[in-house]
Design goal:
Gyrase A, domain 2, Alpha-Beta Plaits, methyltransferase activity, methyltransferase, 8 helices, about 375 residues, 3 domains, globular, Elongation Factor Tu (Ef-tu), domain 3, transferase
Length: about 375
């Protein structure tokens, strides 16, 4: 099957990007190099083509209340221009996907407007799950292949973007969003990201997205691929769906307790399991690991304690910012305390590691 291409594919090809197949899309994995792109985001500003991600618009009466039955976060807290990072859950409280729900307001006739951004690899699965469980009178529009989506991230990201819009971006808080214009064209702007840095994600028409990409490039913003996006998100200990979180992991096991609002969320799929885990504790936890040497713990490598396999590495890399190998791994709850010594089996040999506090990297407050 031929891979899909985003509206920005040709612009990336012109920059001699290296491409890879990802979730059915032909995506740039790197441009100038992962380390250079990573450092650009940490020190200045980088931009990512994330047009492959799933993009849904929902309209109708009681949209937030209907979505509330699918997620463990209290959506009644949301006011106009606010968003909630959360997870779709199956009946076992396993994570179907992580996503962001953006409340865009209520019209005079009571119609609520909500935008939802989901992972590329799970777009079809999420759409099916949501449409099967939401009332039929809620309009569900899938614009996943009809919009460009660009993430501009880094300490200079907001300054770069502010030049191109009349909206006052300083008034938009973290997880805030608005509908405005960029380069004079309609745009949805959200102060969200997947790098651990400040920045915005901007959704526009394909033509608008191409113009934005080209203008940012001319203004010195570094194009970045999926490779740098992965090292950046891992330093920030942000979960990758399909590796760190799956249909078989609960948000409490995955360290996402902060988005589980049992006191306010009401009834939702998977609630009873989370109530049980909250009462009894979880059998395993997703922890951060720092390797003692230079060996890198990779996805699916065994975690060893007292010569027995006790867990599994879910993500790992050599941290460009920190200069040493880091990883995320599931371990038994009794081995999840910061400071715990543990081992990782790499090519048949056990190498020492230590459980450390997450995130591995935290940006300096501006």
């Amino acid at each position: 099957m031929t891979s899909l291409r985003t509206p920005l594919y040709d612009l990336s090809a012109d920059l001699k990007a290296r491409f890879t197949e990802f979730a059915g899309w032909e995506m740039p994995v790197q441009y100038s190099g992962i380390k250079q792109e990573h450092q650009a985001v940490r020190t200045a500003a980088g931009m990512f083509d994330i047009s492959h991600m799933g993009k849904f618009f929902l309209r109708g009466s009681g949209v937030l209340a209907a979505l509330q039955t699918l997620v463990p976060s209290d959506l009644s807290r949301l006011t106009l221009g606010e968003a909630q990072y959360t997870v779709l859950l199956n009946p076992q409280a396993g994570i179907i996907d992580d996503l962001i729900i953006y409340y865009q307001g209520t019209e005079t006739d009571g119609t609520e407007r909500v935008a939802v951004i989901v992972n590329a690899a799970t777009t079809d699965k999420d759409k099916t799950w949501m449409t099967e469980h939401l009332p039929s009178d809620i309009a569900f529009e899938d614009v996943s292949r009809d919009r460009a989506l660009i993430a501009v991230q880094g300490p200079e990201a907001v300054t770069q973007l502010q030049r191109l819009t009349t909206e006052d971006l300083d008034k938009v808080g973290r997880f805030g969003h608005l509908e405005g214009t960029v380069l004079g064209q309609p745009a949805f702007l959200a102060r969200t990201g997947y790098t651990g840095e400040d920045g915005f994600e901007i959704m526009m028409s394909p033509d608008g997205g191409q113009a934005l990409w080209q203008t940012l490039l001319e203004n010195g913003v570094t194009p970045c691929g999926l490779g740098a996006r992965d090292t950046l998100r891992l330093e920030a200990a942000m979960a990758l769906y399909g590796q760190d979180i799956t249909d078989d992991t609960t948000p409490l096991e995955a360290g996402l307790k902060w988005l589980v609002h049992l006191d306010g969320a009401g009834k939702f799929i998977g609630r009873s399991v989370l109530e049980q885990q909250s009462a009894d504790g979880v059998p395993r936890r997703l922890v951060g690991l720092q390797m003692a040497g230079r060996n890198i713990a990779r996805h699916d490598y065994p975690v060893i304690h007292e010569e027995k396999t006790v867990g599994t590495v879910t993500s790992g890399t050599l941290s460009p910012s920190l200069g040493y190998p880091i990883a995320l791994a599931y371990v038994p709850a009794n081995l999840a305390k910061v400071g715990q010594s543990i081992g990782v089996e790499i090519r048949g040999k056990t190498h020492p590691a230590q459980v450390v506090k997450k995130p591995f990297y935290k940006r300096k407050a501006s």
